Amino acid sequence: MTALRNDAFDELLAGRPLMAIFRGLGVERSLELARRAWDLGIDAVELPIQSDDDVEALAAVVAAGRAEGRAVGAGTVVTTRHVELAASAGAAFTVSPGFDPDVVRASIAAGLPPLPGVATASEVQAAMALGLTWLKAFPASLLGPAWFRAMAGPFPGARFVATGGMDATNAGAYLDAGVRTVAVGSALEDPEQLPALARLLGR
């Protein structure tokens, strides 16, 4: 069986401790916050696609990001149809809340590096057995920083993106626990958190 690889994230997320997620905000607000993220120094942006409006917003942010050399991915990709929509919108990668080998294969076939979600050692092992090295840990706020330290023992090759309940107040603890990238959303709408996020980017 051919190994499935997503080591393109070695470059997409290299040296990027934060990724931005904008869910269900429409075209204008998504563009506004994406530009805020980019101005702050958060290069990677993800827009979950759960409606036609979301796909429209994704396409708009992809176009804006392409002009600035920024990678924009599609999130909440849970079906092969979602992979098709992500590809049609020009997404650079896909992100899923769980681990579905069919979605992973469809994403790779479409030329989009997949970032599948995991929450247990069994899921990490299954994903890595297929050849995947980058994994989204979700919901990270419930798993806690200790989970990542525990996973580092049996799975030293795993590279985790922590998603779910992350903001400027807790992101540092996850990065200290070995997380490569922390995905934040509403924190970018809070002016009080922006300075703290900027400090995290300068770690």
Query: Approximately how much beta-strand content do the residues carry?
Result: 15-25%
The geometry reads as: globular
List the total number of helices. Answer: 10
Tell me which CATH architecture applies here: Alpha-Beta Barrel
How many distinct beta strands? 9
Considering DSSP H and I runs of 4 or more, what fraction of the residues is helical?
40-55%
The fourth-level CATH homologous superfamily is Aldolase class I
Look at the structure and give the CATH class: Alpha Beta
Along the chain, the helix and strand elements come as HEHEHEHEHEEHEHHEHEH
| Rg value | 16 Å
**Strand-pairing-aware structural class:** alpha/beta
Summarize the structure.
GO terms for molecular function: lyase activity. This protein is of the alpha/beta class. The chain is built from ten helices and nine strands.
